[in-house]
């Protein structure tokens, strides 16, 4: 996978199981997130967002502003508690993880969410790979993403990983490229 394919988000989310790595310009990250979520909901998926980029409450407002019902999305949030949102607790629509560095907590939350929705056709959005690299070394991020993608493939589910365009070094880019079915440049 030498080059990210430039393609519309609408064309990439299908009814078949696949894992896509989306690259977008930093200022377009929220728009890419929103497009992927809307398309996944439209396709009938039960959407789970793993966020270490924006607090889940911010994403809920963003989705509502864009005409989506945030109740249709389940959140695994590793940034709110880390940023001092100590009053925020896990509930029926959120699992709060203490920090983006807590890969054990993220792994457990991910597995718990998959069990919770095991009867549904699931789509996982991981936002964002680039943010994880702020908190963790690249080798740990790749190992964690290998766990995520392998678990999705084992369960025959789909997902997307968001990253900032130009934000991955060539080695990490090729390692991540080997874990996904498609790489998309979302402009």
TrEMBL record:
A Pfam family assignment: DUF7504
Protein name according to UniProt: KaiC-like domain-containing protein
Lineage, top ranks: Archaea, Methanobacteriati, Methanobacteriota, Stenosarchaea group, Methanomicrobia
């Amino acid at each position: 996978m030498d080059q990210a394919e430039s393609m519309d988000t609408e064309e990439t989310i299908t009814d078949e199981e696949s894992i896509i790595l989306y690259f977008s310009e930093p200022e377009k990250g929220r728009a890419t997130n929103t497009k992927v979520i809307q398309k996944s909901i439209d396709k009938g998926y039960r959407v789970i967002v793993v966020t270490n980029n924006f607090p889940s409450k911010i994403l809920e407002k963003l989705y509502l502003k864009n005409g989506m019902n945030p109740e249709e999305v389940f959140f695994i949030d590793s940034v709110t508690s880390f940023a001092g949102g100590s009053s925020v607790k896990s509930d029926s629509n959120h699992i709060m993880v203490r920090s983006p560095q807590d890969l054990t907590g993220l792994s457990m939350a991910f597995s718990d969410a998959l069990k919770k929705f095991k009867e549904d056709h699931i789509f996982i959005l991981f936002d964002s790979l680039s943010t994880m690299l702020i908190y963790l070394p690249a080798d740990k991020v790749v190992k964690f993403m290998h766990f995520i993608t392998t678990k999705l493939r084992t369960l025959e589910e789909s997902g997307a990983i968001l990253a900032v365009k130009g934000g991955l070094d060539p080695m990490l880019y090729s390692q991540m490229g080997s874990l996904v079915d498609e790489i998309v440049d979302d402009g």
